[in-house]
């Protein structure tokens, strides 16, 4: 068991030297989380636009369900994806369990409701504001959705960043479906948990520092996007 000062010094040295294991874990984390964010946006933004524009029986219940799914417990998501991808599951023939692809699926299931709910709220507010204009122009629903997405692009980027921040910090779901296999499915959060349990704090701390830097970077990006959107609205 390393003492704190020694572990912190070693952690900083690992980051400064660009340790190969550290780079591999960070790169896989970014690949998995960015991929999941992309898929979540491809699902969530159109779904959010659809919910913002369309009016149909059961819409209120569907919106409530999407909002509730934002709080899905990660371990439950991991369990559901595990059952679906296991050999006896409906998608077992794909052979994805304990691969980065399985981790991407789990993170996508986890954050797609977040992107959908945030997109729906943003685009619904815009739709309320521009509804009379859209009616006067006799636009189709599809044209309205496209116009809302273009006008709300800054806020939608914020939704995507929120989803990425949730994905990159996830541990429970990816641990279940990825297995935390060295050089294959080990990401920052699972590596931190493993190294801490082993008492090897240097790598855990170095990964924690990188993860915190990413979290701060995401927050800075969100603030920058919001400021850009605010300046654009006053231009």
From TrEMBL:
Chief subcellular location equals membrane
Q: GO CC: one term?
A: plasma membrane
Q: Which UniProt keywords apply?
A: Membrane, Transmembrane, Transmembrane helix, Transport
Q: Where are the transmembrane segments?
A: 30-53, 65-85, 97-118, 154-181, 201-222
Gene Ontology terms: biological process: transmembrane transport
By sequence similarity, the record places it as follows: Belongs to the binding-protein-dependent transport system permease family.
This chain belongs to the protein called: ABC transporter permease
């Amino acid at each position: 068991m390393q003492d704190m000062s020694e572990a912190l010094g070693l952690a900083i040295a690992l980051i400064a030297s660009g340790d190969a294991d550290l780079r591999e874990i960070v790169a896989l984390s970014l690949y998995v989380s960015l991929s999941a964010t992309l898929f979540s946006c491809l699902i969530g933004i159109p779904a959010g636009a659809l919910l913002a524009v369309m009016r149909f029986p059961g819409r209120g219940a569907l919106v409530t369900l999407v909002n509730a799914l934002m709080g899905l417990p990660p371990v439950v998501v991991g369990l559901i994806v595990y059952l679906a991808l296991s050999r006896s599951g409906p998608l077992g023939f794909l052979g994805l369990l304990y691969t980065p692809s399985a981790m991407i699926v789990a993170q996508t299931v986890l954050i797609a409701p977040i992107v959908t709910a945030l997109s729906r709220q943003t685009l619904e507010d815009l739709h309320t504001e521009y509804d009379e204009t859209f009616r006067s122009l006799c636009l189709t629903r599809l044209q309205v959705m496209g116009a809302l997405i273009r006008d709300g692009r800054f806020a939608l980027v914020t939704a995507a960043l929120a989803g990425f921040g949730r994905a990159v910090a996830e541990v429970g779901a990816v641990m279940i479906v990825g297995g935390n296999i060295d050089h294959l499915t080990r990401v920052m959060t699972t590596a931190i948990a493993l190294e801490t349990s082993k008492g090897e704090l240097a790598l855990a701390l170095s990964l924690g520092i990188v993860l915190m830097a990413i979290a701060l970077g995401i927050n800075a990006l969100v603030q920058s996007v919001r400021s850009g959107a605010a300046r654009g609205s006053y231009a």
